């Protein structure tokens, strides 16, 4: 038997969760959100993402080497593992979703160990990474055979995907509409209030909280473990036909270098940084210049031979706040003021690459909760 559900949030998390719930056609779902696909706002992380699939979550400590791939370790790692097949299916079969496969290289510099970005990259640069049997074509780069950029000590290469968020978010919203989801603009000041926002006018039996960084202040949630990690990007028209990242830079421990070429004319995203607890919404012009210079150093093919940043054709500068959470993503059941709530927020810099895994886990919690509520009736 179906239930009335309200999903608060229309970022990649809310849309993916609503879609998985709606696909079964049992439930009647309303999405309520302050920001929607098409908006660019500092409170809305999803449009700013590259977005690609570069797993960063380590397997749980103590897991036997032989078990690393066979058994998921931390839930975070399994969220990443469970997301790859769907992203690969979209890249393979559904060009309208705006996801494509990309050759990817990850460069490791020994000196980045212990920095904010180096720590973020720790599993990603592991030559024995758990995801080596998940993504296609994984191989270890060799100093002798591969032309490694100066200062790079090693690295890996594989096939990943890059998502054009300007196409993918509207596509997710369209898929939700196709499956009967009703989408409304609205601002919720307390999560329990959302139970009264179902499009039927009846009370929703369950609310799914996908409000990202706003879970810090949202009434009834106010999760103090949430904090931002600011990311600044430059989107350009130049097309290097590759995705590349390094484990750090010489410009500070929280600056990063990555290049992501988005699908279907989405431009090429040059990044970046990982500035914890920094809420600044405006691009820093000096950082933008460093980002562009480093991108060309990393991938000289971005511009004609001998040219510098003046040869980059800029579409836009951007800033997004990754919704980080001490203790990791929160995919959990809760009861707030008598309202059944399933949380799915705090996805840091990995909301796309964990999206289907987290949405499936949230859906399971929704089904369990509704099953228990019905059993009590
Ligand atoms: P959001 O996208 O922030 O959406 C939150 C939603 O909740 C919005 O619709 C908002 O309006 C709504 N909302 C909030 N409060 C309320 C309220 N009170 N009432 C009603 N609605 C409300 N991830 C990857 O996987 N790969 C990448 O390559 C990648 N690159 C990134 C690069 C940058 C520069 C940044 C900033 C992030 C990157 N990320 C990447 C991370 C990814 O963007 C986030 O993890 C993801 O977008 C979080 O999505 P979300 O739906 O949880 O939150």
UniProtKB/TrEMBL annotation:
Main location: other
Record-listed E.C. numbers: 1.4.3.3
Family: Belongs to the DAMOX/DASOX family.
PANTHER family per UniProt: D-AMINO ACID OXIDASE, D-AMINO ACID OXIDASE (AFU_ORTHOLOGUE AFUA_5G11290)
Record-listed D-dopa binding positions: 258, 322, 349
Catalytic activity field: a D-alpha-amino acid + O2 + H2O = a 2-oxocarboxylate + H2O2 + NH4(+)
Annotated positions binding FAD: 211
Top-rank lineage group of the source organism: Eukaryota
Keyword terms of this UniProt record: FAD, Flavoprotein, Oxidoreductase, Peroxisome
Domain FAD dependent oxidoreductase: 5-362
UniProt keyword Membrane present: no
Subcellular location: Peroxisome matrix
GO biological processes: D-amino acid catabolic process
Co-factor requirement: FAD
Name this polypeptide is given: D-amino-acid oxidase
Gene3D superfamilies, A to Z: D-Amino Acid Oxidase, subunit A, domain 2, NAD(P)-binding Rossmann-like Domain
Protein's organism: Meristemomyces frigidus
SUPFAM superfamilies per UniProt: FAD-linked reductases, C-terminal domain, Nucleotide-binding domain
GO cellular component, one term: peroxisomal matrix
One function term, GO molecular function aspect: D-amino-acid oxidase activity
Classification via InterPro entries: D-amino_acid_oxidase_CS, DAO, FAD-dep_OxRdtase
Pfam families xref list: DAO
């Amino acid at each position: 038997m179906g239930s009335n559900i309200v999903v608060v949030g229309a970022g990649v998390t809310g849309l993916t969760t609503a879609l998985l719930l709606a696909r079964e056609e049992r439930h009647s779902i309303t999405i309520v959100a302050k920001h929607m696909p098409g908006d660019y706002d500092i409170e809305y992380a999803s449009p700013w993402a590259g977005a690609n699939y570069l797993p960063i979550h380590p397997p749980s400590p103590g897991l036997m080497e032989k078990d690393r791939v066979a058994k998921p370790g931390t839930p975070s790692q399994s969220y990443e593992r469970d997301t790859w097949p769907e992203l690969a299916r979209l890249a393979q079969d559904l060009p309208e979703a705006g996801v494509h496969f990309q050759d990817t290289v990850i460069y490791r510099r020994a000196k980045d160990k212990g920095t904010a970005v180096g720590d973020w990259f720790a599993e990603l640069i592991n030559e024995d990474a758990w995801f080596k049997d998940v993504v296609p074509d994984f191989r270890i780069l060799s100093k002798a055979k591969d032309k490694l950029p100066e200062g790079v000590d090693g690295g890996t290469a594989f096939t990943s995907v890059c998502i054009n968020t300007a196409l993918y978010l509207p596509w997710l919203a369209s898929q939700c509409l196709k499956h009967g989801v009703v989408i409304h603009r609205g601002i919720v000041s307390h999560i329990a209030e959302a139970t009264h926002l179902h499009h039927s006018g009846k009370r929703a039996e369950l609310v799914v909280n996908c409000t990202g960084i706003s879970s810090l202040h949202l009434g009834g949630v106010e999760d103090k473990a949430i904090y931002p990690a600011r990311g600044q990007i430059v989107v350009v028209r130049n097309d290097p036909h590759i995705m590349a990242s390094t484990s750090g830079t010489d410009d500070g421990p929280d600056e990063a270098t990555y290049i992501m070429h988005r699908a279907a004319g989405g431009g090429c995203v040059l990044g970046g940084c990982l500035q914890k607890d920094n809420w600044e919404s405006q691009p820093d012009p000096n950082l933008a210049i460093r980002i562009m210079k480093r991108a060309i150093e990393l991938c000289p093919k971005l511009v004609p031979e001998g040219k510098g940043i003046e040869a980059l054709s800029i579409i836009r500068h951007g800033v997004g706040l990754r919704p980080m959470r001490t203790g990791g993503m929160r995919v959990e059941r809760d009861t707030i003021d008598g309202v059944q709530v399933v949380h799915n927020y705090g996805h840091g810099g990995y909301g796309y690459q964990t999206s289907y895994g987290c949405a499936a886990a949230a859906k399971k919690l929704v089904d369990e909760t509704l099953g228990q509520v019905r059993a009590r009736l």
